[in-house]
Specification:
Elements lengths: L9 H10 L4 E9 L5 H14 L3 E7 L2 E9 L3 H9 L10 E2 L11 E5 L20 E3 L1 H8 L5 E4 L3 H4 L2 E3 L10 H11 L7 E5 L4 H12 L4 E5 L2 H12 L5 E5 L8 E2 L18 E3 L8 E3 L2 H6 L6 H7 L3 H8 L19 H5 L3
Parallel strand pairs: 2-5, 6-10, 7-9, 9-10
Antiparallel strand pairs: 1-3, 1-4, 2-3, 8-11, 11-12, 13-14
Length: 348
Amino acid sequence: MALLHNRVDKNVLKKRLQEENLKRVTLSFYRYVILENPPLMRDQLYKEWKELNVLGRIYIAREGINAQISVPQENWDAFQDTLQAVPAFNKMPLKKAVEDDGKSFYKLAVKVRSKIVADGLKDDAFDVTNVGRHLTAAEFNRAMEIPDSIVVDMRNHYESEIGYFEGAIKPQADTFRDELPLVAELLKDKKDKKVLLYCTGGIRCEKASAYLKHQGYKDVNQLHGGIIDYARQVKALGLESKFKGKNFVFDERLGERISSEIISTCHQCGKPCDTHTNCANADCHLLFIQCEECKTNYLGCCTPECKTIAELPIEEQRKLRKGKIKKDTHAVYKSRLRPNLKEIFNRK
């Protein structure tokens, strides 16, 4: 029987990816559709896509599929054939990356989940298919200009801190699960207003729009294809881009540029910067914004404590992670409750 899980060390895989010469296409897609046997579908896709050297992260659930992957250009047609061979995935809308160097993913992971996006909702409590009106980029631009329209960013705080639509409400939430009730509370007195939702590729807005309509909102709209397809349409049609900055993406790139504006700053020195990094101390892994100068000076770490740990031999770091040596670390990965990094580095 074929091995249906990766067993190669991630550092080996990353090195292999960097040395790869072939061209890749980075893309994302999703579809809410009932899958009768998610584990069987998972194994089928893993075997087919492993053979085609597809890399990325795919979630399979009874409610559908959610995928962010990269496909070798030479295998593009064969990959599309595997999708078309599954009736539930026929004519799947595929959203290609705005910026793509082919180094977005280093391994293939296909996982069965209870949901394709963790939202904390009991879907049998409302009609998840009763979604908001899908808007093109041009329609979304026009709708934003309507007086009293409300634009809501349905992404997490670390996504909106590097890029967003002008005038958007940006809830300070760590997860989509946290954001849904927060948005409902923020808009509780605006159920008769035009609500415009957007997210990375559209999948979160599918569930969010149905949730808000169930809550009594009358005019719920969503950006079809999300920021990714908005950027494509803006470029293809010569439209004005009302999105400023970078679009956060959940792969090795951590972001792709949509407009030239840099709307955020390095969390350590305060210089204009919109590049995220994960702290090099594996016991911390805090996601934060770090400029190239600070990345060099602090070895990709968020605090002096983490830098000290990252400089230790790998065996000593492993002991720390196993709790054999007790030290304080800022294990607050992706949390909005980040330590004040600039303050920490200016203490002395």
